[in-house]
TrEMBL record:
Catalytic activity: Hydrolysis of DNA containing ring-opened 7-methylguanine residues, releasing 2,6-diamino-4-hydroxy-5-(N-methyl)formamidopyrimidine
Any GO BP annotation: base-excision repair
Entry's family note: Belongs to the FPG family.
Entry keyword annotation includes 4Fe-4S: no
GO MF terms held by the record: damaged DNA binding; DNA-(apurinic or apyrimidinic site) endonuclease activity; lyase activity; oxidized purine nucleobase lesion DNA N-glycosylase activity; zinc ion binding
Protein name stated in the entry: Endonuclease
Length: 244
């Protein structure tokens, strides 16, 4: 699943289409895609894992789910796009994703202060929301898009290893300093992810995600599906403390 930093990169890559009009539409989506014909793209925005194309009267929202992808000015010969948009200056092809229209102004739909990649990110708001859910597991808290919009499973695993916290720790059991560290590193790692992704070196920097051995303790890592989201967690039982 593309995480918030990857969506920000996509937003940057489609900048050449800004202000241009959609000349053709295709794809196997069930939405009324013909509605997009003749629409001018006024802005590209992102919120968490959502890619947003603003037009004069509505917005197209794209969520890449677990296996979604995109191609710009090229297509996959082996796959039918969910939605293909043609412009005078090129094309955008979206695959295996969810697309829908948003009729309301985006400021009424999205909490920009919860987006870890946004200039409006508010760490104090994240702390307040965490403190309201003391029984929540930290592995679930980091994936809660109302608190950390844009954080996905890679960031979750790497942040918890970085701050030495076991994924089954509860939010309320974390010391205040550790809770602040959780919030700080969720944003810090997201921006590091963004830089590494742009340089095509992201996987080289993974310490525990999909790994077998703890780089600190040199012992086997645990791999389990944890929390209400049942997502893969890679962690070290020796150096990541369980707070309960």
């Amino acid at each position: 699943m593309p995480e918030g930093p990857s969506i920000v990169i996509l937003k940057e890559q489609v900048t050449p289409f800004l202000g241009h009009t959609i000349r053709s539409v295709a794809g196997n989506t069930t939405i009324e895609k013909e509605r997009l014909l003749g629409q001018r793209v006024d802005a590209f925005r992102s919120w968490g894992k959502n890619f947003l194309m603003e037009m004069p009267d509505f917005t197209l929202r794209v969520h890449f789910m677990l296996f979604g992808s995109y191609r710009i000015n090229e297509s996959k010969s082996w796959a039918v796009p969910r939605l293909a948009l043609g412009f005078d200056v090129g094309e955008i092809n979206l695959y295996a994703c969810s697309v829908r229209f948003i009729e309301e102004p985006l400021d009424l739909v999205y909490d920009w202060w919860a987006d870890v990649m946004s200039q409006h990110w508010d760490p104090q708001l994240a702390l307040q929301r965490l403190r309201r859910a003391p029984g929540m597991l930290v592995c679930d808290a980091l994936l809660d898009q109302d608190i950390f919009a844009g954080v996905g499973n890679i960031i979750k695993n790497e942040v918890l290893f970085r701050i030495r916290v076991h994924p089954l720790s509860t939010v309320g059991a974390l010391p205040a300093a550790k809770l602040r560290e959780l919030v700080r590193e969720a944003r810090n790692y997201s921006f590091e992810f963004y830089e590494w992704k742009k340089q095509f070196v992201l996987k080289k920097h993974w310490l525990v995600h999909t790994k077998r051995t703890c780089p600190r303790c040199q012992i086997p890592l645990k791999k389990e599906w944890l929390g209400r989201t049942d997502r893969r967690s890679f962690f070290c039982e020796n150096c990541q403390r369980l707070y309960t």
